[in-house]
């Protein structure tokens, strides 16, 4: 089987593929539009109804690596978010995966005018990167190749913010799935709805999600306690944080937060004495007994966070690189008139 590395069209006739590849319609530009444009990685949004054949070929290609994937042909109701890198950068992907967070974070802080976190190591990384890319031709840097993607139902009544995710095998174990998951939650945040991935998840998918949820929940709780310490003038009195509070801040569903806390071993079960209820005319008072209560253990989150330090989770999604399409006056008018109706 021969598969085009640009549009995923397939054939078992080698000469047909050679002809196709020389004139593939997406050779110079992939379908859809760029919605995330960082120095090394791009995310493109492809509307499944406008680019049906492309979406079908992509889904079929992904099926080779997934057991649970079930949509191949009815792609019209889905958007596809493609993770792409330039042809030149595919060759140095290992380097990018380990160096990216530092240099990208430095670039982002430099852009925001904060020079304090720009370190010499990140400058060195950028210099190395320049060396690698300087010898590449313009076309190698502009030609993009898909290395993974996720699909998302355009209208989901179950708040699914992701239907299927796949990073192609040669590019796995670099934290790229996490970049895509972060982007799916970015979309949920923008739409002000809680998000969760469609079930069932593959074993690999669930592991990626639990790792993602755990780090986001840990960061959220630690930031919350830090901020709270500051406002209390350094006192040790902490305000309580509930799972609902975490969900409000992260757009992660309560059930998924519980999974993350269990993964960090940070959900502690306590048996507390329950007092006898007040007498009511209708119901008899409940008997005094033991009730089960769960609390979030801050020390255990700290422990988990400390163990994770130094391990590179992969490229971080930097919101400054997310592109939001500005609507034209005509489009705005039609949106307003639809709302009025
Ligand atoms: Zn092609």
Question: Overview of this structure, please?
Answer:
This protein has 12 helices and 11 strands. About 11% of the residues have low confidence. The chain has a domain of 93 residues. A 5-stranded antiparallel beta sheet has the order 3-4-5-6-8, sandwiched between helices. The longest helix is centred in the middle third of the chain and has 29 residues. With 341 residues, the chain is an alpha+beta fold. 44% of the residues lie in helices and 17% in strands.
Distance linking N and C termini: 52 Å
* H/E topology pattern: EEHEEHEHHHHEEEHEHHHEEHH
Which band does the percent of strand residues land in?
A: 15-25%
What is the alpha-carbon Rg in Å?
Answer: 24 Å
Q: List low-pLDDT spans.
A: 99-135
Q: Tell me the number of helical segments per DSSP (H or I, 4 or more residues long).
A: 12
Give the helix/strand class.
alpha+beta
Number of strands: 11
Q: What's the overall geometry? A: globular
What is the element layout, followed by pairings?
Blueprint: E1 2-3, E2 10-11, H1 14-22, E3 33-37, E4 42-47, H2 52-63, E5 78-86, H3 87-90, H4 93-111, H5 120-134, H6 138-142, E6 144-153, E7 160-162, E8 164-167, H7 176-191, E9 196-197, H8 203-231, H9 243-250, H10 254-263, E10 267-274, E11 289-296, H11 298-308, H12 329-340
Helix pairs in contact: 4-5, 8-10, 8-11
The structure holds zinc ion.
